[in-house]
Specification:
Elements lengths: L17 H12 L8 H15 L5 E4 L6 E4 L8 E8 L5 E6 L5 E4 L12 E7 L7 E10 L9 H5 L10 E3 L7 H7 L7 E4 L4 E2 L5 E4 L2 H19 L6 E8 L7 H10 L3 E9 L21 E6 L4 H14 L3 E7 L8 H4 L5 E9 L7 E4 H24 L25 H16 L1
Parallel strand pairs: 3-12, 3-13, 13-16, 14-15
Antiparallel strand pairs: 1-2, 2-12, 4-5, 4-9, 5-8, 6-7, 6-9, 7-8, 10-11, 11-17, 14-16
Length: 432
């Protein structure tokens, strides 16, 4: 295989191979709640990187968090540096109180309480006699009311909902001294609880569903971009960093440290987005028409670099990769903000994939959207590597590349081609 060349049959239009889907499932299944992300980074991704990373590449780690960075040119600070960032941390529930009746009361964090009831979970309990080591308790479910018979009329009719203070973990504890039985297991305030549902193939073609697509998918996509680069022979003129960050769900704390340490010229956040077209009850909010199965998304607004966005859109056009523009306003809502939050001067944007039912046990996505983002970013790196007559895009390429609206030509009327199209549309409408 020649450097910079990889044979494809538009993979984003094909079913995801089962071997690749299994890798995605393993990444998403890793128990990595906020602050305990090493199960994914060290347990799944580092061994995966080590299977195919090229000689000379290096994996960086951090003191204060379990984030990792795969570096294609660790000794080349002179090269244009591109950092991709997915985040490994998952929203979680935490033990906040153990009741005398055996109920383990939970903090629901970023979950909608109503969506949790009845689902199986895993409780990760720190060993009180061996701090820093954890045990897994399986077989519990999340509950709130116990039975419809105990609910008031407003709750039965749907006029009122479940409050987060009502959510508890049911471990089926019985007999005497229920509280002491739970405490004897070592369960303590602060222990983490995760939903227990690995992803499965969905009913519709190329779909899948399960828990924690946010943001195992971003980590999977970041890893697969790196794998394609390795298989294509690496990069000659670009330094690519493939980061898996921590603490995103509580304020993007891990990625801003990552950006501060690596100081990239370009930073691209890789994260899930919403399928607004399928979202119920938000028609009046006029959200951008992002839809699952229609391609990857590109953030427009906030701190997104228009020059970087233009390069991504050009690559997507050249390779006929479907792309959707996502209006983000003040904040991308992703790790793309890490550069400015860390006071690093870098061109940044965010790419993603529309999913449904975010922050539930039944998040749903489309493999074509994922593959579209992976190959678009891979081709972007190739394009940058081969730019400027094969010398590669320089570190200063973005300094004077900012679009200027004052030089934009004025459109004073529709072109003849547009007029013809409008007239044809009017004729078709009249005929119908």
């Amino acid at each position: 295989m020649q450097r910079g060349k990889i044979v494809t049959e538009k993979p984003w239009k094909q079913p995801m191979p089962e071997e690749q889907f299994a890798i995605m499932r393993d990444i998403l299944a890793a128990p990595s709640p906020v602050g305990l992300e090493a199960a994914m980074t060290f347990g799944v991704l580092i061994p995966y990187f080590e299977k195919w990373m090229r000689a000379g590449w290096k994996i960086h780690t951090f003191r204060g968090n379990a984030g990792i960075v795969l570096d294609t040119a660790p000794d080349r600070d002179d090269l244009l540096t591109v950092l991709f960032v997915g985040h490994a941390d998952k929203i979680r529930m935490q033990v906040r109180q153990i009741g005398k009746d055996g109920k383990i009361w939970l903090d629901t964090d970023s979950f909608l309480p109503t969506t949790l009831i009845g689902h199986e979970v895993l409780l990760f309990s720190e060993d009180p006699k061996n701090p820093g080591h954890y045990r897994t308790i399986k077989g519990g479910t999340v509950e709130a009311i116990g039975a419809i018979h105990f609910a008031n009329e407003a709750l039965r009719s749907g006029k009122s909902g479940i409050k987060k203070e009502q959510i508890y973990l049911e471990l089926q504890i019985h007999s005497e001294n229920k509280q002491k039985q739970i405490e004897a297991l070592g369960v303590r305030v602060g222990d983490n609880v995760l939903l227990d549902r690995p992803i499965k193939r969905g009913f519709s073609p190329e779909t899948f569903y399960g828990a924690y697509l946010d943001n195992g998918l971003g980590c999977f996509a970041t890893a697969e971009i790196a794998r394609l680069v390795a298989q294509a022979g690496g990069l000659k003129n670009i330094r690519a960093l493939f980061g898996i960050a921590t603490h995103e769900e509580i304020g993007r704390m891990g990625s801003r440290v990552m950006a501060a340490v690596t100081k990239p010229d370009i930073l691209i956040g890789v994260d899930v987005n919403h399928d607004y077209v399928a979202a119920p009850g938000i028609e009046s909010e006029r959200m951008p028409p992002l839809a699952m199965g229609q391609g990857f998304t590109l953030s427009v607004g906030a701190i997104a670099s228009e020059k970087l966005n233009a390069l991504i859109q050009q690559v997507a056009l050249e390779h006929e990769i479907p792309i959707q523009r996502s209006v983000v306003g003040r904040d991308t809502g992703t790790d793309a903000m890490a550069g400015v939050l860390a006071s690093i001067d870098c061109a940044a944007t965010s790419v993603g994939f529309p999913i449904r039912n975010m922050h539930t046990i039944s998040e749903a996505g489309h493999t074509g959207d994922l593959l579209a983002s992976i190959y678009a970013m891979f081709y972007l790196l190739q394009s940058m590597d081969q730019a400027e007559d094969g010398q590669g895009l320089s570190q200063h390429a973005f300094h004077r590349g900012h679009p200027r609206l004052d030089t934009a030509p004025a459109l004073t009327h529709l072109s003849p081609a547009n007029n013809a199209a409008n007239n044809k549309s009017s004729d078709d409408s009249n005929a119908s």
